[in-house]
Amino acid sequence: MTLLRLTDRGLYCEAGDFFVDPWAAVDRAIVTHAHGDHVAWGCGAYLASAPGVPVLRERLDPAARIRGAAYGVPVDVGGVRVSLHPAGHILGSAQVRVEHQGEVWVVSGDYKTEPDPTCTPWEPVRCDTFVTECTFGLPVYRWPAQSTVVDDIHAWWRANQVAGKASLLFGYALGKAQRLIAALDPEVGPILTHGAVERMTRVYRETGVRLPPTTHAALSDRSMWPRAIVVAPPSADGSAWARRFGAQSTAFASGWMAIRGTRRRRAIDRGFTMSDHVDWPGLLAAIDATGARRVWATHGYTATLVRWLQEHGIEARAIETRYEGERDDTAGDEGGVEEPT
Ligand SMILES: [Zn+2]
Ligand SMILES: [Zn+2]
Question: What is the Å distance from ligand 2's center to 37 Cα?
Answer without folding.
Answer: 6
